[in-house]
Amino acid sequence: MSEENVFAINQPENVHCMVYSYQWGRANLVIRLKRQNSAEVQYIRFSGVEYFAGPMKWDNAAFDLRSAEECLSLLRDAGRANEHMTIEHVEQLQLRLLTVTLPNTLVCIVAKQYSRHSG
Predict the structure, then answer these.
(1) How far apart are CA 21 and CA 4, in angstroms?
(2) How many angstroms separate the first and last alpha carbons of the chain?
(3) DSSP-assigned states of every residue in 42-62
């Protein structure tokens, strides 16, 4: 079960994404979105970040929400969850896995909350 283009961004392939700020100690991540040939800037703010993997800049803002099972699997692979952690724990902790599929890699973000807003 996955939900595609969670933020309902039109033509997400034409949006440049950049890690704007990442405060590991506070578990906050902000990604800046800028559409090609436009002055408009938007941001996606993630809080309660448990995991981030990806480049610092990329083109494509189609963030997909993945299942709790996929979230748990990624956390285990990354050493952020042990074999005793269950899907129920992931759901209780309100952890969500969002991904962006790029040609050569997958951007992965596990966070408790996220929101999109204009700059």
Answers:
(1) 24
(2) 32
(3) EEEEEES--EEES-SEEE---
